[in-house]
Amino acid sequence: MIDTIEKISDCMVQHGAHNDRVYLIKLAEGCASEMISHVEQLAQKNNYSKIFAKVPEWALAEFQKSGYMIEAVVPRFYDGAQDGFFIAKYLDALRWEEQHPDTVSDVLATAKEKAEQSCDVTLDTDCTMDVVGENDVLDVCSVYKQVFESYPFPIHDPNYIIKTMKESSVYFCIRKDGEIISVASSEMDAAGKNVEMTDFATMRDYRGSGFASLLLGKMEQEMALRGMKTAYTIARSLSYGMNITFAKQGYQYAGTLTNNTNICGHMESMNVWYKHLT
User: Fold this and answer.
1) Exposure of 86 in the CB half-sphere (CA atoms within 13 A)
2) Which of 124, 128, 182, 186 lies 20 to 30 Å from 49 when distance is taken between CA atoms?
């Protein structure tokens, strides 16, 4: 199943049965009332159990009046000035109930403990790191298909990868003897000058090599050059590796999104981490 992504009045919404939610990805100025009405109609019509949104501080009070709660806060998220709020409205009590509270807590505690440790990783001489081009798209999708049983966005689809490349995303990869073995992407909000560091995937035989840290460092450099002021990620709350990677790279914990995303075959909570690049 693939969820629908649609644009409405310069806003962007994703919704569908795959993630069983409505996700307000982008809210344009002056559209808060309109979008609250729209996402709630979508949720009611399709019987979704969660509405999730990223909103600027100016819109927060209006959403809170409609019953939305804050799950994460990123300071200076928009244009390096205005805070960003990750908010939710649960339409089913079970969706609000964390299924793995002990593991979620332990992953977060472990990541914070390891934050001060160095992440000195070097690339082997038979490996290279570069930006993915359109000619690499089939290989990128092949990596994603092998790593993720399910994913919140259709990264298994070459057409989706090419579309996002043309619109807002830069994909990075590590190759070994010319073959792509690790991938990640930077999804830019040009107006808000923030970027999501996401879609990290490494082939099974090469996990534990620190490739995510290497890619993240490269991505930060490139995004800073492109004028992005704040980097963030929405990381699987059950993944020790990814949370530790971001903590070691200087990212700060912003909050947890409960039962937010269908990834790796099941619904999972996600941790938000952020870092100011300038």
Assistant:
1) 21
2) 186
* Helix (H/G/I), strand (E/B), else coil: 119: coil
The pTM score is: 0.95
Dist CA 46 CA 104 (whole Å): 29
CATH number for 101-276 (one of 2.60.40.1930, 3.30.70.100, 3.40.630.30, 1.10.720.60): it is 3.40.630.30
Q: Are 276 and 234 in contact (CB under 8 A)?
A: no
Paired residues of 4 in beta bridges: 15
For the chain, what's the residue count?
A: 278
What is the pLDDT, as a whole number, of residue 20?
97
**CA dihedral over 187, 103, 52, 62, signed as positive or negative:** negative
The structural domains of the chain, with segments of one domain joined by +, span 4-96, 101-276
For 173-210, what is each residue's pLDDT tens digit? 999 999 999 999 999 999 999 999 999 999 999 988 89
Could you tell me the CATH superfamily of domain 4-96? Gcn5-related N-acetyltransferase (GNAT) (3.40.630.30)
